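Submission checklist for the structure archive. All mandatory fields must be present; incomplete records are returned to the submitter.

[x] Identifier: Phytanoyl-CoA dioxygenase
[x] Organism: Klebsormidium nitens
[x] Residue count: 294
[x] Sequence attached
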Amino acid sequence: MGIPAGGLTADQKAAYNRDGFLLLEDFVSLEECERLKQRAEELVAGFDPKDVSIFSTKNQKQHTDDYFHKSAGNISFFFEEKAFDEKGQLVQPKALSINKIGHALHDLDPAFRSFSRSEKVAAVMASLGYKRPLPVQSMYIFKQPGIGGEVVPHQDNTFLYTDPPSVVAFWVALEDATKENGCLWALPGSHKEGNVRRFIRTDNGVHFDKDMPHYDVTQMVPIEARAGSVVLLDGSLIHMSHENQSPKSRHAYTVHVIEGQGSKWAEDNWLQRPVNFPFEALYEEATSCEKVVV
């Protein structure tokens, strides 16, 4: 694909650069939302939970295992922390216990690949000045009713670091996201403070290189989003979501994109693809550019 036209307006880019996030309403049709939701349900139905992995942003190191690392290059399933009883048995049906699916949906599943590599996604990246945008991670997040886990304040650059930092997230509301069912909350302008910490991979496992600073969550603003909306997030933006204690789910799809020209993927990121499965660019600024494998 050549560089697409369209994308963000000047006012939208100014708002994104000022706040570190931008709500784009009606970015996705409700029909497309339903197709992605149905595909996620099909994937969960076909999943045999022999290997149980739990996703947590509170104690990522404790819950990180070989299954998690391999998810960088496949489609894997992660349960909610509150999905099991003391004996390790699911307390409700599998379909209501999954936290998320990740992390290579954007490459390996036709439905999610089609959205992640659509011209409208590419057009947004082009309007932000990206020369060789590379989708590197994707997640289908269920935010299950009653047990949808809290996501503590964090930055996406912490987990998907490039030098210089370049992550942009497309957070797609597949269902209405409200304060009641766990919408995103963000600290406007916090992206201007730069990256706070790293989640790094070593021979001895993975760990954060420093503690997360304390943030006054009362200064955060809710980003309520109707189904079909996209929330664009700068990788250095501090954002979070509360537990979903409501009876309504909050399905969302997220794809993270980095700059593949002029930014270097960190070799100690937790997410490392097999050498025969490199990231694929949405487009290249010039066809004469040499392919960069990251």
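[x] Structure attached
Curator remark: Confidence is low (pLDDT under 50) at residues 55-64, 287-294. The chain has one domain: 10-265.
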